[in-house]
Request: fold
Amino acid sequence: MQIELVTTRDGSHSLYRPDLDEHYHSAFGAIQESMHIFIKSGFERIPIKQLQIFEVGFGTGLNALLTFLKASELQKKVKYFSIEKYPLAPELTNQLNYPSILQAKSAEIFDGLHRSAWDTDIDFGQFVLHKINSDILISQIPSGNDLVYFDAFSPDKDPLLWSTEIFQKIHNSMNTGGVLVTYSAKGEVRRRLLSCGFHVEKLAGPPGKIHILRAIK
Ligand SMILES: C[S@@+](CC[C@H](N)C(=O)[O-])C[C@H]1O[C@@H](n2cnc3c(N)ncnc32)[C@H](O)[C@@H]1O
Reply:
């Protein structure tokens, strides 16, 4: 599969899949977007000290790295599940410039997140990573999630992932009070989340995006 390295407007890298004509992040800034949606609107809103996260699409590992760093800063313990159908080659992930933009220690951490084995718990101390190499459409989702990063390719390009069935599976996997955050604020996404029993809020998006969604169980 052909995947190209691109630079977004905040200077951080992203990836581009020509076969789908789809980027992994916003062209306005990969780090800026992930910080706004997943960390500030998601992770920082969960008041508990010990939480379980489920991510749809491990991809570049950017959300995992930002969560690791924020968890260390806030002294939180995290169990981080992330499902990925198409793991990236090390030749590609080695080129990503997130560690050089973020704090010094992060090169070692980022490397560790990518080199970790799939389908088992890897203990980094206050952060336990469990990467699942599978297709979410046919997989069981781990239960007990307090926070979900729904970071699939866009609803136009990958509509099956944004279906009521997948949102219901995710809803069933979450603890009461759990939060799902995603970058798409499309009406049909909002309506499907509502139909699964979530309370849904529209929040201001990062540069280049008017709204994002936060759904609460
Ligand atoms: C928008 S990218 C975001 C990835 C990641 N969160 C990041 O920041 O790089 C979407 C990710 O979902 C993955 N994906 C696509 N279809 C999938 C499926 N059916 N099951 C699991 N992962 C899938 C893609 O390979 C890609 O890594």
User: Anything to note?
Assistant: The mean pLDDT is 97.
